[in-house]
Amino acid sequence: MAEELLLEIVTPEKMAFSGEVEEVTIPGTEGEFGVLRGHETLLSSVEIGELSFTVGGKKQYFAVNTGYTEVTANKVTVLVETAESAETINRERAMRAKERAEEKLTKLSKDELEFEMLSIALQRAVTRIGVSEKA
Amino acid sequence: MAALKDIKRKVAAVQKTKQITRAMNMVAASKFRAAQARMESFRPYAMKFMEVLDSLALRVNPEAHPLLAAREPKKIRVLCMSSDRGLCGGFNTNLIKSSERFVKEKMAAGLSVELTPVGRKSRDYFRRKYPIINEKTDILGKFDINLAVEISDDVITPFVNEEFDELYIIYNEFRNVSMQRPVVVRLLPLPSVGQEGEMDPDKTIDYVYEPSEEVLIEKLLSMYLHVLIFRALLETSAGENGARMAAMDNATRNCDEMIRTLTLQYNKVRQSAITAELMDIVGGTEALAKG
Known about the structure:
Number of helices of chain B: 5
Order of helices and strands of chain A: EEEEEEEEEEHH
Oligomer: heterodimer
Largest interface: A-B, 24 and 29 residues
Helix content of chain A: 25-40%
Shape of chain B: elongated
Distance between the termini of chain B: 34 Å
Largest sheet of chain A: 5 strands, mixed
CATH topology of the largest domain in chain A: ATP Synthase, domain 1
CATH architecture of the largest domain in chain A: Sandwich
CATH class of the largest domain in chain A: Mainly Beta
Strand content of chain B: 5-15%
Number of domains of chain A: 2
Shape of chain A: globular
CATH superfamily of the largest domain in chain A: F0F1 ATP synthase delta/epsilon subunit, N-terminal
Number of strands of chain A: 10
Number of helices of chain A: 2
Distance between the termini of chain A: 24 Å
Number of strands of chain B: 5
Radius of gyration of chain B: 29 Å
Radius of gyration of chain A: 16 Å
């Protein structure tokens, strides 16, 4: 078994996860990246997306919102504004949010300010649906 | 002398009031505990965040960023954060009073001031007095970090576009259950980061930055604003419920006091009525005996 790595997912509301994991995959701004023990110290920004990690050979998934992550050789701290584990996501709500955002987006032109905000909302909803399917 | 019935009715009314204030006290107490727990769980996030921001601020020149740009202030904006609901003692009154003082001071200094009330109480008070922009009301019942993000989004773009030069927030700082104090904090340009801490440059970790340091600090600075606003929201929510708890506790005690005096009065009136009646009977029998 690979050496373990301490992972902490911190949000303003709570400590979403804290524990030893074998490997983490983080949705960075410049693409997804995986972290194993002994990784170079890294500070990276995190985008809306799917974060996954392995504990005891089992993969777990989280939908995360924007934030950043600090990686040191034996510890990964992820600070994001929200993080939901696949099990806790309310799939129906995410579906509704997705439909709502899509409906509104079709009515808007691309240069409106709201368009950008809605696209982000849509992205978030799609991520949450994707993650919840892996529960 | 007040009639017996009237006093009785009064006692009953006070008793009902007492029931309500006691219930409100308990509701506030449970909300207060929840709010305090949220403050507790926010702390690790805020601390970790500041740590990284400080270490990052040491390596990039923070003055370069638009959110840190200090300009000669001409127009300012003030976020006045009150609660949505009343019945919490001097909580909102104190806040509004010091906000108004602050606004008047700034106006006297020749600045033009725009207010963004957060919370219904401050909106209701300031609505007719000062120019209001982007008010947020009925939000404190249930809120999360997205509210802080929304509030920040409303101010970041106009600040960068130089529509106003400084942003202040006035909120009740949470000291303990029975003590909240209005404080004024400048949010924009953001309070300088890293400099006061006097961090030992050798101790800071050499990170690999992804993407570049500049992009990263830009993102972190707007998150910093979220953190500051979210903290103010949390403190307001805890403070409001703490203040309401104390106010309702007082009210319940006052009800007890009132019931006690009213009961005493009731008994006195009853006693004198009985005495008067006895006198009547004695007088009657005496008159009969004489006759």
